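Entry type: protein chain
Record version: 2
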Amino acid sequence: MDDEIRQKILALLDQHRIMTVATLRPDGWPQATTVGYVNEGLTLYFLCGLDSQKAQNLARDDRLSLTIDHDTADLMAITSLSMAARAQAVQDRAEAEKVLRMLPLKYPEAGPLPLKMPSPDEIRIFRVTPSVISVLDYSRGFGHTDLVIC
């Protein structure tokens, strides 16, 4: 991946805070859900309930598709990311605690969080490692996509 496209991907990751993740249910149907995320470079993290459908789906099949985008009134200003990725539950407590410290930094305008952040034992944290990244940028032409293999 060249530096220009890497910087564009990192900028889009840093500009946004929510993503839609799609996992596979036991019956084979995809399940799409909106989650908050943080990232460290191209590695993304999200939280969910210990026994949530997402956690159960990913325990069976670690494949994940995701999108990160925003609404815009200008059709030709659409920019987004979509990824094919693998999601692994974070087992290392230090890594989990680091992710929990990163999360409030995505919401600086909120000030101090009124609720106590959950502990790593109360939630499931997933590390998302992209395999393929699609960078959509309509400013370069309708439907323009750069495909990056990781």
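Comment: Strands lie at 18-24, 30-36, 38-40, 43-49, 63-68, 79-89, 123-137, 145-149.
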